[in-house]
Structures are given as C-alpha cells and as structure tokens.
C-alpha cells in the first residue's frame, strides 16, 4: 500500500510561497530522499487524528502518524513526512508548511494529536494566530500557525527519551542512550509507545486561559528486531513492555498554562486516561476514567466536584449543549450532557456548579 | 563398580539416546504444499457439538519435536504473528496461551487455522508458507499454553522476556480463559 503522504507528490509543496520554517524541512523530494531506497512506499505516516481549520488563513492543519516499522534501524534517515504536522491550503491542497516534530521516530510517537487554534498574545500587544499541540513526544508546542515557527516547546509530562526541542533549529534533541538497537533491550524509556498523550483531545478554556490535558504516564522496555513487510500483518519489529512511569500512576490530568509555560495543577489517575476533556463556560471541566467514573472538576483548582459511575470505561468524547428548559424555573439553567462510551443515556449534570469561593482561592 | 550397575547405566544411556532422538528428529524434506488445497488438511470448523475430525497422523512428527518447535518460534516472529497475538497474550488476535480454542487446539486443528485463516481477522497463510512451516508454527503455538514437553521447548525466549523461561516454570493444568469471548 502506498502512502500518499510521502514521495514525489510533495514536490509542489516544497515550492510553496512561504518556505517551511526550518532548514531540515526545506528542499525537494524529501519524502523520498529521507528514507532508504523505496522505503517511503511502505513507511506508514498515515492520517488518523484530528483536523483543524482556520477560515481566515484558509488552512487545514493535521498531524501524521509514526513511520513503519517501529524498528528504526530498518529505515535510515529522517523519514518524512511522518510524525509531523502539515498546514495545507484548503482550496488547492498544497502544503503551506510542515514541521517535523519527531524526525526518525524511534518509539511509535505519532504526531496525530489535536491542534487547538488560539489567538496568542504577541510581544507588542498584537495577536498572533497560533496553535497549541500537546504532542505524543511529551512536549507542549505553541506554534505560529501562519508559518509553523515554534514559539515555545516545553515538557508537560515526564520525558527521558528526548532532551528537549532546539528552538533555533526546530529539531527534537534525541537521547542516544535510549535508542533501541536490534538485539538489545533498552529499559525505562519514557514516554512509551502511546506517548505522553494519545489521540484523546485536551480542552482549552477561554475563561481560565488553561488547557486541560488528559494523558498518560507510561514508560517501557523496548527491544528492536527485524520486521518483514507482509501485507495484512503488523509491520512492527519491536517487543515492548509497558508499565507506569514515575509515581506509579498510569494516567494524569494536567491543567497547563500555555502563556506562563507551566503546570497549574495535576490529578493523578491510577488507570491510563483515554477520555477526552471538556471545559465549559461555567468553570467546570469534565473527563472520564477507564474504570467508568465520569468526573467534574473545578477549572481553576482541580477540585473534584462530582462524579458518576457509568457502566463502562470511558473513552468517548463528552459534549455539552443547552437543553430546552422544560419545566425548569431557573432562567439561566445550563444543562450539560455527556455520552460515555456505550452508555445510551446522557447524564444530566445541570446541578453541578463550581463553588464560587473555592475558585477564587487557587 | 558392579557389573549390574554398569548395565543399568548403559540401559539408561540407551533410553536417553532414543528419547533424545525422538525429540530431535528432523524432517529435512517435508512435502511442499501443492498448487491446490491438500485433501489431508480437513476443515476443522464444525457447527455445535459436531465431532472433531480424526487426528492427522503427521502430528507425531511435530508434536514435542524440539527442532520443529524452534523453527516455529522463529517463524512466529518472522511472519508477524507477534503483531496480532503478541507472545501468546493476545491483542488484535486472540490469546494463544489460554486453554480456550475457537477452532480447536489439536496440532492439526491449529495447522488448519493457520492454513485457511479464520473469519474474524486471521489471515490465511496458504501459499505464503510451506505445509512444513505451518506444522512447525503449530508446534510452537501449542507451547504457548504449556502443552509441550519441557525438554522440547526452547530455554530462551526470542523477545524481551517478562516471565521465567518455560524450562524453569512448573507445568500447570490449563486454565480456561477469564471470560467468554464474543
């Protein structure tokens, strides 16, 4: 199966009006040249995550998945256009820019997570169209969405598989001691294959200015071995053992301040968090756990205000909407409903309110 | 040293040699798979309480045979069985280390599953593997649930190991799967 992300098709993109921000992403036929011979044809890099659209810039944003096989020794080079993020002109499909978050990915760190479009406070009071990306590799990227340039990239989770992001070159700094080799098992690599966070999207609240990230605290031992390409079977070439990272909890719910570039609070969850988050104008944030608890927390303090045990683990997207008032006498009564996976009945949460006093103390 | 003792040592050595022969026996010229389906590979999928077909006599060549199991172990990695079944625990594919078989756990029934594929996502390997390779794989698959002799299984796993090798663990009775699948 050929992947249309790669190969000569990208040549047009490379000649776009605004060049990609960093030298490693500029040039022609990089989707062919950054691989061993013919490997781009079987190299993965699919699109299975979120798309965002900017109606002013008329650009569509999305990330691409990991290169295949996981055994990176079999695919020398940067392996474009995998594990990066694209901005494309919505009318022509032409790439405006591309940023390679994880060149030559070693650990299945896809880059398909959500891109949240925000107005960013620029230096002289002007507003920069920016995007927020809590990435699989564990860095929280703030990027100028006109050209892909990184404004900041900070670790929002425990990372030892990389040593940071070089803001001058835009390049992820690898940790050579964590590189799996064929026939050698490397222990204690963080984050593991699902990354510091997987596909389940975070929520940005314009009320608090915080982003609420449901994510993972999972590390791994990884051994690489030769993978054969057999259509219809997994092209992996790695053995992985996953376990909880530092602290022993496998899930984390982090409230992150993107401007101050710091964590505001975090809630440790025993099980990995695979539920998306929802932030409401009423100062509440919702998420669910794999053991079926649907939770409402205070958006500023993280205090648990309410929880409800559903019939199954929660990995579905909570949504909120204003319900018809019905026999309600309260004129501004807001109703939220959440649809946890496999639950046919929405849960009415209209009685939950963040405590006014508590929200001002934190 | 008494003559009697010497005799029994010789006998023991002979027995060990014979036993070892069986364990190590290797068919270097397994018959390749023909262009069309072989009649000797019966479909083992049968409805309800229907009776399993008569065992395939070739089973004796592969069951408990160390070299067949070792070859199978190698193929299990090389053919990407691991990507779906992992090292027995299951993932996209069903677990192969429990005592529960959807399509039968006899070695010839496992061969049939590999050869024909199975409807809920198991690819058919006919024309991709030789018949001999499928029997070797089946011999290895049976070791995942501890059904093969300890002196025939490999002492060393090929993967990152999370558990002691099979040669150092107690043989335990097969446990049924935790929950009924589907």
UniProtKB/TrEMBL annotation, chain B:
Its cofactor is heme c. This is C-type cytochrome. The lineage of its organism: Bacteria, Pseudomonadati, Pseudomonadota, Alphaproteobacteria, Sphingomonadales. It holds the Pfam family Cytochrome_CBB3. Keywords: Electron transport, Heme, Iron, Metal-binding, Respiratory chain, Transport. InterPro entries: Cyt_c-like_dom, Cyt_c-like_dom_sf, Cyt_C_IC, Cytochrome_c_Oxidase_Subunit. It comes from the Bacteria. Residues 25-46, 149-182 are annotated as: Disordered. Residues 67-145 form the Cytochrome c domain. Residues 149-159 have a biased composition (Basic and acidic residues).
């Amino acid at each position: 199966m050929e992947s249309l992300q790669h190969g000569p098709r990208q040549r047009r993109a490379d000649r776009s009006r605004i060049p990609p921000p960093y030298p490693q992403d500029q040039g022609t036929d990089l989707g062919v040249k950054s691989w061993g011979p013919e490997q781009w044809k079987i190299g993965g890099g699919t699109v299975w995550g979120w798309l965002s659209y900017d109606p002013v810039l008329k650009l569509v944003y999305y990330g691409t998945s990991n290169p295949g096989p996981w055994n990176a020794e079999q695919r020398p080079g940067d392996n474009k256009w995998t594990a990066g993020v694209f901005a494309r002109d919505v009318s022509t499909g032409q790439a405006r820019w591309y940023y390679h978050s994880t060149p030559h990915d070693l650990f299945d760190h896809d880059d398909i997570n959500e891109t949240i479009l925000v107005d960013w406070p620029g230096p002289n009071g002007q507003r920069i169209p920016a995007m927020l990306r809590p990435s699989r590799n564990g860095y929280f990227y703030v990027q100028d969405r006109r050209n892909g340039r990184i404004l900041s990239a900070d670790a929002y989770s425990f990372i030892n598989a990389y040593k940071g992001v070089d803001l001058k070159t835009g390049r992820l700094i690898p940790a050579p001691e964590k590189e799996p080799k064929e026939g050698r098992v490397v222990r204690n690599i963080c984050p593991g294959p699902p990354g510091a966070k997987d596909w389940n999207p975070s929520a940005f609240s314009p009320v608090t200015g915080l982003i609420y990230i449901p994510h993972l605290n999972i590390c791994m031992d990884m051994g690489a071995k030769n993978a054969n390409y057999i259509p219809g079977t997994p092209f992996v070439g790695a053995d992985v053992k996953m376990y909880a990272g530092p602290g022993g909890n496998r899930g984390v719910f982090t409230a992150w301040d993107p401007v101050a570039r710091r964590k505001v609070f975090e809630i440790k969850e025993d099980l990995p968090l695979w539920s998306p988050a929802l932030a409401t104008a009423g100062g509440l944030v919702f998420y669910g756990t794999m053991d079926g608890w649907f939770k409402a927390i205070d958006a500023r303090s993280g205090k648990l205000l309410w929880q409800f045990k559903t019939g199954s683990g929660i990995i579905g997207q909570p949504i909120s909407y204003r319900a018809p008032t019905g026999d309600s006498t309260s004129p501004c009564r807001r109703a939220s409903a959440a649809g946890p996976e496999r639950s046919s009945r929405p849960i009415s949460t209209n009685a939950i309110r963040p405590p006014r006093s508590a929200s001002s103390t934190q | 040293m008494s003559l009697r003792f010497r005799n029994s040592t010789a006998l023991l050595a002979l027995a060990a040699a014979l036993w070892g022969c069986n364990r190590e026996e290797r068919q270097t010229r397994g018959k390749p798979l023909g262009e069309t389906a072989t009649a000797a590979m019966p479909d083992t999928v049968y409805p309800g309480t229907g009776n399993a077909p008569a065992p395939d006599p070739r089973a004796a060549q592969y069951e408990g045979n160390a070299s067949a199991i070792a070859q199978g172990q190698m193929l299990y990695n090389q053919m990407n069985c691991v990507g779906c079944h992992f090292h027995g625990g299951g993932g996209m594919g069903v677990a192969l280390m429990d005592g529960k078989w959807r399509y039968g756990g006899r070695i010839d029934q496992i061969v049939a599953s590999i050869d024909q594929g199975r409807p809920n996502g198991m690819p058919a390997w006919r024309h991709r593997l030789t018949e001999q390779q499928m029997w070797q794989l089946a011999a290895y698959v049976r070791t995942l649930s501890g059904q093969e002799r300890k002196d025939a299984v490999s002492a060393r796993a090929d993967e990152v190991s999370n558990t002691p090798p099979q040669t150092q663990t107690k043989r335990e009775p097969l446990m049924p799967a935790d929950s009924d699948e589907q």
